[in-house]
Amino acid sequence: MSFKSVSERARGAISLCAKPGLSQQDVEDIWMSNGETIVSICNFAHLKMLTLPLGLYQSSLLTPKQREVLEWTADGKTLSEISEILGKSQTMIEKHLRNARDALNVVTTAQAVLKAMQLNQLFLPEDADK
């Protein structure tokens, strides 16, 4: 099962499997009689997982602009490229990065990207492993 997310970069999925020994028909019968309940439980589990490990701070840690600048940084864009993409001065981009580092209580921008990902503040691009 896949799940919608508030971020275009985040994807969620839960994999289900049947107990060994059940036939495909047994699985389909279980799904027909309990499918809505199973989906509800999976949706609940997904929502709970989104808050891990430090979901208490999830909504207030970074501003949308700090998050956006960190996402472009995580994509490997330079200050100059981010400045051009967002139509802002490099000084403003540096300010957003500095404020993001301060909000996350880290020293380097690389640490900020990592910590923001750990706190579900931003997500790796889909093609990060390519």
Percent helix: 40-55%
Q: Describe the oligomeric state of these chains in a short phrase.
A: single chain
Roughly what is the average pLDDT, rounded to an integer? 82
Biggest beta sheet summary: 2 strands, antiparallel
CATH homologous superfamily placement of the largest domain? Winged helix-like DNA-binding domain superfamily/Winged helix DNA-binding domain
The radius of gyration is 20 Å
Give me the count of strands.
Answer: 2
Break the fold down into its secondary structure elements and pairings:
Blueprint: E1 2-3, E2 12-13, H1 24-50, H2 64-74, H3 79-86, H4 90-104, H5 109-118
Antiparallel strand pairs: 1-2
Helix pairs in contact: 2-4, 2-5, 3-4, 4-5
Detailed description of the structure:
This protein folds into two domains: about 1-50, no CATH class; about 55-120, Winged helix-like DNA-binding domain superfamily/Winged helix DNA-binding domain (Arc Repressor Mutant, subunit A), CATH 1.10.10. It is about 55% helix and about 5% strand. The protein is built from five helices and two strands; from the N terminus they run ββααααα. Strands 1-2 form a two-stranded antiparallel ribbon.
